[in-house]
Amino acid sequence: MFEDSYRRMNENVTASRDLIEKTIELAQRRNKRHKHAPAAILVALILVLSGTALAAKVTTGDWLGFVINTDKIVDFQELVTNPGESIVCGDYRITLRSAVGDDSTYFILFDLDTVSGKPLIGEDLTPMPISDSLPADIYLNHFINTSYDDLGGWGVASSVIRIDDGSNPAKASFIQCLQFSNSGQAPEWIKLSVKSIDAIINDNNEQQNVILAEGDWQIVISGQTNTDRVEHRIGDSIFRVTPLSISIYSNTALMEMNSGIKLEMDDGSTMSISEVSDLSGFEDGIITDWQMTAVFSSVIDPEQVVAIIIDGERISLK
User: DSSP of 144-173, one letter per residue?
Assistant: First the structure.
C-alpha cells in the first residue's frame, strides 16, 4: 500500500531547477561553523502527534494526512531535491520521499530499511508498542544544522511518527516534524546529521533505548518555501499565519508555554492549539525578543483567521 502511495505521490513531484541547484550548493558548503542542536536535549519539546494519524489514508501527494487533518487542499512546494534518493551507512538505508514546510514548520517523509533484508530490530529484542504517547518505536538520533547559524539564535523541536503497518520487519516509514523559532526568517537549508538509529524496546516491562546502528547519514532539504502566509503587525508584535502553523514575534513574551491558545475563524468557529514551542532572547535578565510557533491539527486557510485567543484574552487580527 505504501509503495503504491509513494509512487503516485512522486509522479506529481516537480522540484524546480533553481531549487535543486541552490540546495545542492548550500548543502556542499565547507569550512563553515555550525551550531548543533542535539535531538536528545529537545526531549521536553517533542510533539506528540495525534494517535489517529495511523488510521489516516494517503491520497496522491497528500501524505500529510498521516499527521494532520488535510480536508483543505494546499499545494505545498516540494523541498527534497531528488525524491527517492537513498543514504546508506552500513546495513541501514534512509530513503527520502518528500518534504514540505512553511518557513517554521517542516515535515519530512522517509523510509528506513536494511540493505541485507534483515529485520530493523533484532529478533532478540521486543519493541515497545506504538501508542498515543509513543508514536514511533524507532527514531533517528540526530543533530540539526541550518543557515540560521548566520542569523543569530534559534530553537527547534523535533519529533517523529511511524506511519507504516509494521508488516515488513526490514522496512518502516516515518514522518519527521521540525518546528523552528527564529525571528520569522526561513532557513535557506536544513540538515539532519544522523549519528545513530535507535529503538525503544521492552526490557522486563521497562522502556529502554538501544542503538541499532551507528554511522553518519546526512539528510538535507531546502528551507525556502512558497507557502501562502498572512502577516499582521499589532504594536511591537508580528503574527504570521500559514496553512500549517502560527508564529508570533515580539519584544515581550505574550504567553507561557502552558497557556491555552485558540484561533478564531471568520465563521465564528474556534480551533484549539495544544502543541507550542517558544524561544526567548535575554539581555541583563530582560527579554529582548520572543518567538512562538504552534502547529495546527488541521490545514487551514490563513485568510480566515480573524483573532487569536490567549488565556481567554482575544487579540483581533482584523
Answer: EEEGGGGTS--EEEEEEEE-S-S--TTEEE
Domain 230-316 class in CATH: mainly beta
Q: Do domains 2-222 and 230-316 have the same CATH topology?
A: yes
Find the Cα–Cα–Cα–Cα dihedral 104, 79, 228, 60, rounded to 10°: -120
CA–CA dist 175, 108 (Å, integer): 5
Q: Per-residue confidence of the chain (318 residues) as pLDDT tens digits?
A: 444 443 443 444 333 334 334 433 433 333 333 333 344 333 323 333 333 333 333 333 468 888 887 777 677 888 998 899 999 999 999 999 999 988 888 999 999 999 999 999 999 999 999 988 899 999 999 988 888 765 455 667 788 999 999 999 999 999 999 887 665 678 889 999 999 999 999 998 899 999 999 999 999 999 888 888 888 888 888 888 999 888 888 777 666 655 678 899 999 999 988 666 655 554 555 555 677 788 888 888 999 999 998 888 898 988
Q: State the pTM of this model.
A: 0.74
Where do the domains of the chain lie? Answer: 2-222, 230-316
* 194, 224, 237, 254, 286 from 251: Cα distances, Å: 35, 25, 7, 9, 10
Per the CB < 8 A criterion, the answer to whether 59 and 12 are in contact is: no
In the numeric block, the cell 531528488 is attached to 82
CA distance 269 to 294: 18
Q: Are 130 and 150 in contact (CB under 8 A)?
A: no
Reference 27, options 163, 193, 220; nearest CA is 220
Q: So what's the pLDDT on residue 60?
A: 30
Contacts of 131 (CB under 8 A, 6+ apart): 51
Asked whether 280 and 295 are in contact (CB, 8 A), the reply is no
Cβ neighbours, 10 Å, residue 205: 5
**Contact 191/147 with Cβ under 8 angstroms?**
no
* CATH topology for the 2-222 domain: Immunoglobulin-like (2.60.40)
